[in-house]
Amino acid sequence: MNVPIEQRWTRKLIRKAARLWNAGKSASEVARAIGRTRCAVLGVSHRNRPLFQRKAEPKFRR
Questions:
Q1: CB of 31 within 8 A of CB of 38?
Q2: Most exposed of 5, 27, 40, 51 (fewest Cβ within 10 Å)?
Q3: Could you tell me if 21 and 30 are in contact, meaning their C-beta atoms sit under 8 angstroms apart?
């Protein structure tokens, strides 16, 4: 599958997303900051788990 160059995840972009994520930003906030979709951010966070800190579990479950 060929992905256009402007849509590929560079190491620099992954590190930027990880910094924002680890600073407590939501996937939507990270996506807006780097010009990607929320789903793309969630996907890269799963593929690069060592860089992305795990979010705290919700205190209450509905």
A1: yes
A2: 5
A3: yes
